[in-house]
Design a protein that fits this description.
The complex is a heterodimer of chains A (283) and B (345). Helices cover 31% and strands 10% of the residues of chain A. Chain A starts with a helix and ends in a 29-residue tail after the last helix. Chain A has 2 domains: 4-135, no CATH class; 148-260, no CATH class. Chain A has helices spanning 4-16, 79-90, 118-121, 148-154, 158-171, 177-180, 206-219, 229-233, 241-254, and strands spanning 22-28, 35-40, 49-50, 73-77, 99-104, 133-135. With 345 residues, chain B is an alpha+beta fold. In chain B, 32% of the residues lie in helices and 21% in strands. Chain B has helices at residues 10-23, 101-114, 121-128, 178-187, 198-210, 219-226, 234-238, 247-251, 296-315, 325-329, 336-343, and strands at residues 5-8, 25-32, 35-40, 67-76, 79-83, 94-99, 130-135, 161-165, 171-175, 192-193, 258-265, 268-275. In chain B, helix 6 (219-226) crosses helix 9 (296-315). The two termini of chain B are 42 Å apart. At the A-B interface, strand 2, helix 5, helix 6 and helix 8 of A face helix 8, strand 11 and strand 12 of B.
Chain lengths: 283, 345
């Protein structure tokens, strides 16, 4: 999977035709095999752009920043990234007319260990679902599988599970990298930043980490697209996908197989009401 | 004055560590979720003093924890009562094994600010009660640049005991401070006094370590040029893809900004001192609503200028030790090295 040449050509064309103001893509770090996001405003810089199985970061995250706000943006999206973009479109956070989307029929990206990332192995939709131009050969939608780590955790006893998560929350340093790297976290003022909040504000203790991370994950329930930007961003290497995948499983099983962002304009599981929604949990 | 040097081998060093762990309250790098963090250990098997620099958090939290209780209070209609919290768990006499040179230097840098106009007694106690045993790296990490900064890594006295891997499995153990000398006298048990070749062997190891750096810079040039770059457009460019989290500051061995906050239930509460960061958009938000650093480039300018200009002017040292952790932990790999190089170009 290497679309470096194609993406450079498209970006150069878009700039020369005056169709975009900025282009959000990947560039090589220059010293190892990894890549970092790059925001290009000048046609002369398009030769920096690369794309291959090291293009990991979900670039949709950059659509919430100043550099792209109210500008015409060219952007590269893989399957999971495009699902996040679909949600931003549904939630009126970006204007479709302002975007030129290069979709990728993704073959999976590599994790830090050089092997295909877990979320790519479990991916339900590797092809971009919203795009102006698609690169690669689509492989189609795949069967939903329950995350292996979730099953492993669920098999443990309550005490053991509690101890495991206590470990997770006590290792959190509250840097908020998870939230900042999440393309779907765009609130102008996040609830965990409220000055007056006794729950989350201030201390970086285990209890505040618990409240912050749980609130964050519940706000993403039915929206998370499993790109794992958060997990890769976490300096403490916390297994944040456990929170999201658990929510995803519960929603999949209880909301008619709902998976977020697959269908353009489709509303998330928690912001649409259907008479057939289960209500047996209401007392 | 010159300090004692001992020599041993791998098994001997392990015995030395075991003896320390047996006799003192000891902290060492413990693996958790695939990275190393300094924690109290009961045996050598649970930790790895040779943990890789690129995957090890700094020792800063043992002196400046991510959240520390500073007082308890009770406030109701009858008045306010303030009391001490429970004893500081980090104040005990302790030893830290497997400290990286850069982290130890980080404490020397922090000492300036903590002993400045106000003496932070918590920090001072933790500092005075700690023996730092530091192993010199054999090879620089991808993001390391400690040898390019304003301290002599080879001759550093930022730690009390130095451990160097010599040729053919010989390991040298050297005291670097009075405190370290005394500590070794007490715990050197199985170590033999080093012979004449020790200095030469340690120099040789340093040379090969020094040659392994990918990143090199001239800090004097950076310090000089950065002074005039306050209005530079480069800050906007280098911070373009910053996502605005606090990771770089929280994992930095020298960043020391904090916030004060309360956790209160009904009439009783605890006041905490916790990490904060200038990269946080709310950091400079004032009570009236004004924010002098509302945009990313201004926050990045503050971060870079504080590290390479303001701190240097005030205390004579750079607020950066070249550990490269910011670049390693940054979700988008922004490195302070690249930033200041670019700005000072």
């Amino acid at each position: 999977m290497d679309y470096t040449k194609q993406i450079q050509d498209i970006a150069a064309r878009l700039f020369s035709e005056g169709k975009i103001d900025v282009f959000v893509g990947y560039r090589s770090t220059g010293y190892d095999e990894n890549q970092v996001p790059v925001i290009i405003t000048d046609a002369g810089e398009v030769d920096k752009l690369v794309f291959n199985d090291r293009s990991v970061f979900n670039l949709v995250n950059y659509l919430k920043f100043e550099q792209t706000r109210n500008k015409r943006v060219g952007i590269v999206v893989k399957g999971c990234d495009s699902r996040a973009l679909n949600l931003l479109l549904t939630e009126s956070q970006v204007k479709r007319d302002n975007l030129y989307i290069i979709g990728i029929a993704c073959e999976g990206v590599l994790g830090e260990d050089g092997r295909k990332a877990q979320n790519c192995l479990e991916c339900v939709m590797p092809d971009a679902v919203v795009y102006d131009e698609l690169l690669g050969t689509p492989s189609g939608k795949r069967e939903y599988v329950v995350n292996a780590d979730i099953l492993e955790i669920a098999a443990k006893g309550l005490t053991e599970r509690a101890a495991y998560f206590e470990d997770v929350f006590s290792s959190c340093i509250r840097c908020n990298a998870c939230r900042h790297s999440c393309p779907l976290c765009y609130c102008a003022k996040c609830c965990i930043d409220q000055d007056s909040s006794a729950l989350y504000n201030g201390s970086n203790t285990e209890s505040s980490a618990f409240h912050a991370l749980m609130t964050w994950s519940l706000h993403l329930a039915g929206r998370c697209v499993d790109c794992r930007n958060c997990e890769k961003a976490c300096p403490s290497h916390l297994p944040l996908h456990l929170l999201h995948k658990q929510n995803e499983m519960v929603i999949y099983q209880n909301f008619q197989g709902h998976l977020s962002g697959l269908v353009p304009e489709e509303r998330g599981a928690f912001y649409k009401y259907s008479l057939s929604d289960p209500d047996d949990f209401i007392m | 004055m010159s300090f004692s040097t001992y020599k041993t081998d791998k098994a001997g060093l392990q015995k030395f560590y075991e003896a320390i762990i047996g006799a003192c309250s000891t902290y060492a790098p413990v693996e958790k979720f695939g990275k190393y963090d300094y924690q109290k250990v009961a045996g050598l098997a649970a930790c790895n003093p040779d943990s890789p620099i690129g995957n090890t958090m700094s020792i800063k939290p043992l002196f400046f924890p991510k959240s520390a209780k500073i007082l308890k209070y009770k406030a109701d209609s009858s008045g306010t009562e303030v009391s001490e919290t429970t004893a500081d768990p980090l104040a005990e006499k302790r030893v830290i094994l497997g400290v990286k040179h850069c982290d130890a230097r980080g404490l020397q840098v922090l000492d300036h600010v903590y002993k400045w106009d106000f003496i932070d007694t918590d920090y001072e106690t933790r500092r005075n009660n700690t023996i730092i045993v530091s192993t010199r790296c054999d090879k620089a990490g991808e993001q390391c640049f400690c040898t390019s900064l304003d301290y002599d890594v080879e001759k550093s006295d930022a730690f009390d005991v130095l451990i160097v891997n010599g040729d053919n499995g010989t390991i040298y153990v050297q005291a670097r401070t009075e405190k370290g000398e005394g500590f070794l006298k007490e715990h050197a048990g199985n170590l033999a006094a080093a012979d004449g070749g020790a200095e030469e062997a340690m120099k040789k190891q340093y040379k090969s370590f020094e040659d392994s750096f990918r990143l090199k810079m001239n800090y004097e040039e950076i310090n000089g040029k950065m002074k005039d770059r306050y209005e530079s457009d480069e800050f906007d460019k280098v911070s373009a893809n910053c996502i605005g989290c606090n990771t770089c500051a929280f994992i930095c061995p020298t960043c020391h900004c904090f916030k004060i906050s309360d956790e209160r239930i009904k009439d009783e509460g605890v006041r905490y001192k916790s990490y904060d960061s200038c990269n946080n958009g709310y950091f400079t938000l004032m009570a009236g609503g004004h924010n002098p650093r509302p945009v990313k480039y201004r926050r990045w300018r503050q971060r870079a200028m504080h590290k390479f200009v303001y701190y240097k002017e005030r205390f004579g040292v750079n607020l950066c030790v070249g550990c490269g952790r910011c670049a390693i932990s940054c979700p988008v790999n922004i490195s302070i090295f690249e930033v200041v190089k670019q700005v000072a170009k």
